[in-house]
Description:
It is built from seven helices and four strands. It has 197 residues and is of the alpha+beta class. Among the domains are: 59-94 and 140-195, no CATH class; 104-139, no CATH class. 12% of the residues are buried.
Amino acid sequence: MKQIGLLSILPVILVLSCHSGPHPIEPVPAEPIVAEAAAADENAPAVSADPAVFDPAAISADMYASTMAELRVFIEALNAIIRARNYTAWVSYLSESYYAEINSQEFLARRSEELFRRDQIVASNLGRDPRRVQKRVLRTSRDFFYNVVVPSRSNDRLDDISFVDENRVKAYTVDSRGNRLVLYDLKIIDNRWRIIN
């Protein structure tokens, strides 16, 4: 009798097992090992679990001063290139990823809209009808350079920097109201500072 009962249940078990499929084995966290190691040496200095975490306070005053001096020279040279309207030289100051970004249609469309709004504000401030402003459409990074960068970036002044990591800084200028404005996001690539954003 027990054999008949087991045989009648067996098809149900087979059907259910066919529909469930294999279950992935989840890895067991290694926390007990880490906890044991930490408990073994309580006097050891704390080590960050994430080696990518950067502490800006670790930058020495000498490193800050030398980086500021280096970036002042960088920005003065960049200003001269922009004043000379030298597109090719300007591109050499950009990272490959930033150059690709400023050539994207999405970027150029956003900048075209911003340029149009700015031109309307300027017209209004000069007493002109902002509705009569003709929209300039940026189609290439060259258009972006001549219509946006040249008029706005030829006389930048570096007032401060903040380190994002050892090889990346944000460069700031301070306006007449005391506001800190980002000039450039810079990173050392191939032993040279490059604009990355």
